[in-house]
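In response to reviewer comment 3 from the previous cycle, which asked for concrete evidence that the modeling workflow produces usable outputs, we include below a single protein chain processed end to end. The sequence was submitted unchanged, and the resulting structure tokens are shown without manual editing.
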Amino acid sequence: MSTNQQPQQEVQDNARFVQELQSDDPHKEVIGRWFLKPVGKRPALRRYLFDLWNRRHFIWADSRARAFSTGRGMILGNVWLVLQPLLNGAIYFLIFGVLLGTSRGIDRFVGYLIIGVFLFQFTGRSLTSGATAITGSKAMIRGFTFPRASLPISIILREALNMLPVIGTMLLLIVMVPSPDAAEMSPPHADVTWRWLLFPAVFILQTVFNVGVAFFAARIVAQIPDFRHLLQFVQRLWFYGSGVLYSFDRFVTDPQILAILGLNPVFIVLDMSRDLLLYGVSPEARSWLILGAWAVGTALLGFIYFWRAEERYGRE
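The workflow returned the following structure tokens.
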């Protein structure tokens, strides 16, 4: 700062100091030329983003440290990350595919079901885990000053890391597990094509969307703890409304209702993933645009919605 600017800055500081002395705010205490600021006060959005970016290394380190911790204390450990969706898929296949016959009309139904169950698990876990980002970290929030948005982000990164072995198992299954109606039960479900290279883009968009979902859920549960008990019903409705187990075309004939169901972001994730991995078809540009809009829009709106309640988190 130049010498000409220093006196001007001092005048501004002194004027601000006088204003603080004359303030009627009973919660503000002045010490010398400095005054104490309220702890946990919500910073400006630009400053908040800057602080969040400065803590990116902590967020990543925390996510890696907590990843694959689901099975701690269990005999099978992290095997449950893969075993749980695998057992769910087997049960759904028995009930819906065999007993109820929802597999009729769906080519390569086993692979169809595997992709649906495995990938929906990512969004489902992001919803339930993200909802506890604030309520499960009150001690840290009260003890340290940091952007609270780092908590939901860290949780979604952890869930994304947990999904890596799950996705590896999913890809192996859709290639190796034969189709029940295939001749001699030998042909694989899917062929590995260049379109598999596009699947990580779908997974990244799903991850960004999940971050937005976690922001919304974290603030709602922090302010209304009872909402946490309703999440299981929201997740169940979302599960059956995403075409995980069946094709909508078989049960819904109204084109307008089908169009509405087709706007479900999780349905779009599953539909695009099945096209890329199972059927060797490139998704339409419209699907990419809609999923991209859902991902970016949900993440931005969720972030702003979460940030606006920053100073309330951690209070009784």
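The radius of gyration is 25 Å. We consider this sufficient to address the reviewer's concern, and the full set will be provided in the supplementary archive.
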